[in-house]
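Sequence in, structure out. Go.
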Amino acid sequence: IDIFFNLTNIFHSFVDVTTNILIIFHILHMFSTVVLNTSQSVRSKQFCNSSSVENVRYGCCKDRAIN
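Output:
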Protein backbone atom coordinates (compact mmCIF):
# COMPACT_ATOMS: atom_id res chain seq x y z
CA ILE A 1 0.00 0.00 0.00
CA ASP A 2 2.84 2.41 0.79
CA ILE A 3 4.52 1.75 -2.56
CA PHE A 4 1.25 2.31 -4.38
CA PHE A 5 0.66 5.56 -2.47
CA ASN A 6 4.15 6.79 -3.39
CA LEU A 7 3.55 5.93 -7.05
CA THR A 8 0.29 7.87 -7.12
CA ASN A 9 2.01 10.85 -5.49
CA ILE A 10 4.78 10.75 -8.10
CA PHE A 11 2.22 10.48 -10.86
CA HIS A 12 0.18 13.42 -9.55
CA SER A 13 3.24 15.63 -9.20
CA PHE A 14 4.30 14.66 -12.72
CA VAL A 15 0.85 15.62 -14.02
CA ASP A 16 1.07 18.95 -12.16
CA VAL A 17 4.47 19.72 -13.67
CA THR A 18 3.30 18.76 -17.16
CA THR A 19 0.22 20.95 -16.80
CA ASN A 20 2.33 23.89 -15.67
CA ILE A 21 4.71 23.44 -18.60
CA LEU A 22 1.78 23.32 -21.03
CA ILE A 23 0.30 26.49 -19.54
CA ILE A 24 3.66 28.26 -19.81
CA PHE A 25 4.05 27.18 -23.43
CA HIS A 26 0.53 28.37 -24.19
CA ILE A 27 1.21 31.79 -22.65
CA LEU A 28 4.52 32.06 -24.52
CA HIS A 29 2.81 31.11 -27.78
CA MET A 30 0.09 33.72 -27.30
CA PHE A 31 2.69 36.36 -26.40
CA SER A 32 4.88 35.58 -29.42
CA THR A 33 1.81 35.67 -31.70
CA VAL A 34 0.87 39.12 -30.38
CA VAL A 35 4.45 40.37 -30.80
CA LEU A 36 4.63 39.03 -34.35
CA ASN A 37 1.29 40.61 -35.29
CA THR A 38 2.22 44.01 -33.87
CA SER A 39 5.64 44.01 -35.54
CA GLN A 40 4.08 43.06 -38.88
CA SER A 41 1.48 45.82 -38.65
CA VAL A 42 4.15 48.36 -37.70
CA ARG A 43 6.29 47.19 -40.62
CA SER A 44 3.41 47.47 -43.08
CA LYS A 45 2.58 50.96 -41.78
CA GLN A 46 6.20 52.02 -42.26
CA PHE A 47 6.65 50.70 -45.79
CA CYS A 48 3.20 50.97 -47.33
CA ASN A 49 1.09 53.73 -48.78
CA SER A 50 -1.83 53.66 -46.36
CA SER A 51 -4.06 55.78 -48.59
CA SER A 52 -4.53 53.00 -51.15
CA VAL A 53 -7.60 50.80 -50.91
CA GLU A 54 -5.59 47.59 -50.93
CA ASN A 55 -3.51 48.55 -47.92
CA VAL A 56 -6.52 49.77 -45.97
CA ARG A 57 -8.41 46.57 -46.66
CA TYR A 58 -5.62 44.01 -46.17
CA GLY A 59 -2.87 45.91 -44.38
CA CYS A 60 -0.26 44.68 -46.83
CA CYS A 61 1.95 45.93 -49.64
CA LYS A 62 0.63 43.94 -52.60
CA ASP A 63 -0.13 46.99 -54.74
CA ARG A 64 2.90 49.08 -53.82
CA ALA A 65 4.40 48.59 -57.27
CA ILE A 66 1.26 49.94 -58.93
CA ASN A 67 1.12 53.12 -56.86
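Check: Residues 45 and 59 are 8 Å apart (CA to CA). The chain has a mean pLDDT of 74.
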